[in-house]
């Protein structure tokens, strides 16, 4: 049986607006007044720590990256707890896989605290109990570490896993891990990125095009059910 590993942000839930706003607030606190959604979108799929390391250097921020991370996590958690939307077809997909007994995990570049807040706030924690944060492995996406650790915790071989991802770094990580990939691009303009070229199943229109039935049928053909 195939195991399914979900990215969280932008894949299962639409948390990117919260990540943008928490990042914007953090940068503003340190003197960066102009940080746009377009700038944020270039970091979608990259872990928060890695993103802040790049931004610290780019804007010559004096604060230690650990401080920046703590500030952004606090701001994000405040926003996440007030409401995070689960993509409806994704919830339907997870519920169907759970009903069929398909092993599942969440593997995310977010902090464990942020992941847990979103899963509990949306009720997904009852369906997805195996969780890996990039904080728990040596390297974040596009390195394969977080997906390989998820497979290990599921007791599955990487070749028997399929990753569901919305961003190019995650698709690259899945490929590096030797796993299949269902790609649902969060940013429409990235649908033709080379990272998605070898995805087993690609929904170029992102969540507007994704359906639980289509994804399940593709997995079933691979022996997931």
Provide a concise account of the structure shown.
With 225 residues, the chain is an alpha/beta fold. The protein has helices at 16-29, 37-41, 48-58, 65-82, 88-99, 112-122, 145-154, 168-176, 212-221, and strands at residues 3-6, 104-108, 131-133, 161-165, 180-183, 201-202. Strands 3-2-1-4-5-6 form a 6-stranded parallel beta sheet, with helices on both faces.
Write up this protein.
There is one protein chain. It is built from nine helices and six strands; from the N terminus they run βαααααβαβαβαββα. With 225 residues, the protein is of the alpha/beta class. The protein has a six-stranded parallel β-sheet, with helices on both faces. Helix 8 (168-176) links the parallel strand 4 and strand 5. 46% of the residues are buried. The mean pLDDT is 94. Helix 4 (65-82) runs parallel beside helix 6 (112-122).
């Amino acid at each position: 049986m195939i195991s399914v590993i979900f990215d969280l942000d932008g894949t299962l839930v639409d948390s990117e607006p919260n990540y943008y706003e928490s990042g914007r607030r953090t940068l503003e606190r340190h003197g960066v007044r102009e940080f746009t959604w377009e700038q944020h979108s270039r970091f979608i799929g990259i872990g928060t720590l890695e993103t802040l390391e790049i931004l610290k250097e780019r804007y010559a921020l004096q604060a230690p990256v650990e401080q920046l991370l703590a500030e952004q996590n606090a701001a994000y958690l405040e926003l996440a707890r007030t409401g995070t939307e689960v993509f409806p077809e994704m919830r339907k997909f997870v519920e169907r896989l759970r009903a069929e007994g398909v092993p599942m995990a969440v593997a995310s570049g977010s902090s464990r605290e942020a992941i847990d807040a979103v899963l509990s706030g949306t009720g997904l924690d009852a369906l997805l109990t195996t969780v890996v944060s990039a904080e728990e492995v040596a390297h974040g996406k596009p390195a394969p570490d977080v997906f390989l650790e998820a497979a290990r915790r599921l007791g599955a071989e990487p070749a028997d896993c399929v990753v569901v991802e919305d961003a190019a770094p995650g698709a690259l990580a899945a490929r590096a891990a030797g796993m299949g990939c269902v790609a649902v691009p969060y940013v429409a303009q990235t649908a033709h990125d080379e990272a998605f070229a070898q995805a087993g199943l690609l929904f170029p229109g992102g969540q507007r095009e994704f359906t639980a039935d289509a994804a399940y049928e593709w997995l079933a053909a691979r022996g997931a059910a």
